[in-house]
Amino acid sequence: MSKLKLDLHDIYNKGDLIGKTGIEKSYELELRGKSGVKYLMVDVHNRTKGSFENGKYDTLPIPGNDIISTIDLNLQALGEKLMTGKRGSIVAIEPSTGEILALVTSPSYNPQLLVGRERTRNYTQLYIDSVNKPLYDRGLLAQYPPGSPFKVINALIGLQEGVLSPKTTYTCRHGFHYGRLHVACHCGTNSPIALRTAISKSCNNYFCTVFKEVVEKYPTQEGMDRWSAHVKSFGLGNWLNNDLATGRPGFVPDASYYNGIDGGTNWRAVRAISLGIGQGELDLTPIQMANMTAAIANRGHYYTPHIVKKIGNQNVDEEKYLKPKHTSIDPKHFEVVIDGMFDVFEKGTAKASRLEAIEMCGKTGTAQNPHGQDHSIFTVFAPRENPKIAIAIIVENGYWGSRWAAPIASLLVELYITGKITRPEMEKRMFEGDLSEEYLKQLEDKYPTTPLPENER
Asked: In 61-194, which ranges are continuous DSSP H helix?
């Protein structure tokens, strides 16, 4: 909270406080209430002589509304603890409502630092920390290439456009090849594979080929724009119009983007082939990835994510938050993709994070990062039928999705659905997992120091 200048709004007076971040900013008018007024008589020496006309013109203050948040405290607390020693974020959404169940950014800070006489000095220290960025909400503001979790979107687009069927097979010969272009793949499948296996094994060749087929079904310009429109129907590349105080739209390229870069329209689908595996120019925020996962869990629709459940006795705006937003993909196409995401846990890249008691559907990701080790990414929803939670997790410089993000997601799903953790060894390993040395190495690589000459040491 901070003082508001008098010339910004005529409903505030000098010394009033206003919400500057978070729920306090988004719901300032609902929380503010109305100040009371008391008129007093004073003499020429400004000494109070009593109430003016026996309080005839006095008014009582009206308190602001109570607000109920959607955050699940147990889930939030576990998420924060699991992210200790790591940079990144966790966003969890209830697919059937769009309610945000957890919103974790790491590293963060203790809010008590911004209360009391030392708050100005503490805030300055937090603000100037350009390495850890504790004031930077990675869940809402950080933009990353989504990596392999985005392959399921390309699968759905391919099914919708008719260039792909559940039985369509491609043979991966260690990656996608087109002339001199080579996109490596480590799926380990040398025989023809169909869509379900391609998802569980995360085959780069398969989804690069699907992307190429989608775009080249039409003249390149039209094909690229059709692909982009499908992607954006999942709420990607756009402001989600939620009730959070901050955020970013991410970026989903279209034909005009490549026209501008290449200076014309003489380019083909392979120019943007990295989009087939969630790389290249594509950037998404973690909350968008969680929302994308919720849309898949719902078989083709989502609800605008929101962090407030009730304002006083009233529910949130039904038209804005409780009305489903439909993607451009027919619901019939989702089952085979969900089968593949289920296999990710059963026999695919996240098998080590599988839970016997809960059918989970997910997708591991390893997003390329030019500033150090790749990011560990994972998206998941559970249970498979009537899903109750969808999660997106990013652990910066976490190597690959199954190493950090997938186990963390699995623990969060277990706690939320069953109310307990039955894998203490995994929980302990995630709690104690610390990437500080990786971040220090990254910093040293970025700002190398010149050693002193031997005679000056």
From this structure: 73-82, 119-127, 138-141, 151-161
Domains along the chain with CATH numbers: 140-440 (3.40.710.10)
Radius of gyration of the chain (CA): 26
DSSP 264: S
Structure tokens at 360: 């989970």
Rounded to whole angstroms, how far apart are CA atoms 273 and 435?
Answer: 32
Give the per-residue pLDDT at 431. 92
Q: Tokens 């978070």 map to which residue?
A: 22
> pLDDT, tens digit, for every residue of 115-137?
888 888 888 888 888 878 888 88
From 90, 95, 91, select the one nearest 297 (Cα to Cα). 95
Answer yes or no: are the C-beta atoms of 379 and 297 closer than 8 Å. no
- What single string gives the DSSP state of each residue in 287-332? HHHHHHHHHHHTTSEE---BSEEEETTEEP-HHHHSS-EE-SS-GG
Q: What angle do CA 173, 378, 288 make, to 5 degrees?
A: 110
- Which three-class secondary structure state does DSSP give residue 197? helix
pLDDT at 451: 54
Query: Per residue in 78-94, pLDDT tens?
Result: 999 999 989 899 999 99
- What is the pLDDT of the chain when averaged over all its residues? 88
Nearest CA to 328 out of 404, 228, 418, 218 is that of 228
Q: Which residue, 61, 59, 52, 56, is CA-closest to 16?
A: 61
* CB proximity list for 64: less than 8 A, separation 6 or greater: 30, 31, 32, 33
Residue ranges of the chain whose pLDDT lies below 70: 1-10, 369-372, 400, 443-457
